[in-house]
Design goal:
2 copies of one chain form a homodimer.
Chain A (H helix, E strand, L loop, with lengths): L3 E2 H19 L4 E2 L1 H8 L3 H9 L11 E2 H11 L6 E6 L3 H9 L7 E8 L8 E2 L2 E5 L3 H7 L4 E4 L3 H13 L4 E4 L12 E4 L2 H13 L4 E2 L9
Parallel strand pairs in A: 4-5, 4-8, 5-7, 8-9, 9-10
Antiparallel strand pairs in A: 2-3, 6-7
Helix pairs in contact in A: 1-2, 1-4, 2-3
The first copy, chain A, binds a DNA duplex through helix 3.
Chain lengths: 219, 219
DNA sequence: CGTCCCTTGTGAAACCATTCACAATCAACC
DNA sequence: GGTTGATTGTGAATGGTTTCACAAGGGACG
């Protein structure tokens, strides 16, 4: 299989969402054009992305919605239950815990940690907030696959180091810092400050940010 | 001035954060190398990024921390107060409202909207949740610069269309869909589902996602 | 004030993702 | 079963970002 770029993987998620909707409304087949329109990209891009993993379409017809949905779920590793732990029971942590829309895709929060003793012991929807001190032990016991880091910026790298040492290979970081992990650990960062400041830049500078192919500031 | 790419603007935010920290600990000068290390990129990248906006460093010495901090704040448009509105008072909306770490950079939430009449009228930290029906009028009255969209996926495009028609030029979207806006509107999307599914892909496929220059899955 | 060492700024090269363009293929219909 | 119209899959072209590599410049110190 060819190399798969990060942007491609991101788009697969978007395709999957669109396909799921289409499937629910009973559509049997989509063209790359329609799929692209709904996912916010181009038909050529859709075909390129999918062709990396195999040939799923029929020329002259398009892609079979249900089969492609299944295929993408398999490719993205969504066929299983992912065990997630949340480190940091502050505002962001609580919000993520409350949201949990991602349960539908198989991401289940199985443990919550905080270093504030006042929060430890609180019961969140049947789950007891655990002490930071138990982190390593509990990650192993609960067989956690993915850790969500929702601690203050200063504490984030420390948490990540411990979590990595405990064997976790997937990290989703909400702290507004660049974190360092070994090459065999997957790290994704959601940095709201960066997003807001990009908006600020765009607004302050007359939206002069260059986008690929002059598609200006669309997404 | 040359064209400024999206990734470059994002990195400026990161540089700014690092510089602020350095300034607070009394450091007077940084090399591109040190700045790069702390921001998670390369020295050459730092120099290229900064050189777009001018020459701020001294050869043989490095960059003056305080002066560069000010310069970046100016470039990013952080010298003023940005008036932000939050549309959607659900879990995510509430979390963002509670977080508000970004106040420090001048982003102030001045209004909250929801279409659920049960939420309308609630007082959030001195701010009354307003009805969705007032949206257009209130955006103009409050001179809102940036709207944060925190509504369900199905409702997001509708909200965006109204907000754009009301003259808002900056949108930060948390709904898990690709949104369409005219070229003169800046849109940034934070899609947690995509991030989680990218992690899932990486974990399920032995971290085989190609990153630029084989830097594998670091960030 | 000359030499040395360090670090910037930047043109050129390398690299990678996206877009183009078209041959190959399939269903449908007569 | 041939013809038509549509759409995929993909090699080549394009365009943009990152990295390289080095000349230019500046401070420090003798």
């Amino acid at each position: 299989m060819k190399k798969v770029s990060e942007p491609t993987v991101g788009r697969l998620s978007l395709y999957l969402r669109v396909l799921t909707e289409l499937g629910e409304s009973g559509v049997g087949t989509v063209s790359s054009e329609e799929l692209a329109r709904r996912a916010g990209t181009t038909a050529a891009q859709v075909r390129k992305d999918l062709s990396i993993f195999g040939t799923f379409g029929k020329r002259g017809l398009g892609y079979p919605v249900d089969a492609l949905t299944e295929e993408l779920r398999r490719i993205l590793g969504l066929g299983r239950r992912w065990r997630v732990a949340l480190v940091g029971a502050g505002r962001i942590g609580r919000a993520l815990f409350g949201y949990q829309d991602f349960r539908r895709q198989g991401f289940y929060i199985e443990a919550v940690f905080d270093r504030d003793e006042a929060k430890v012991g609180q019961e969140w929807n049947g789950l007891v907030v655990r002490s930071d001190a138990e982190l390593e032990k509990a990650l192993a016991e609960e067989e956690i696959d993915i850790v969500i880091v929702a601690v203050p910026a200063e504490a984030a790298q420390g948490v990540v180091d411990r979590v990595v040492r405990a064997g976790v290979r997937g990290i989703l970081n909400f702290a507004p810092v660049k974190l360092h992990v070994p090459p065999d650990v997957a790290l994704k960062t959601v940095n709201m400050a960066v997003e807001l400041e990009s908006l600020s830049y765009a607004l302050a500078n007359g939206l002069a940010v260059s986008r690929r192919r002059g598609r200006a500031n669309r997404e």
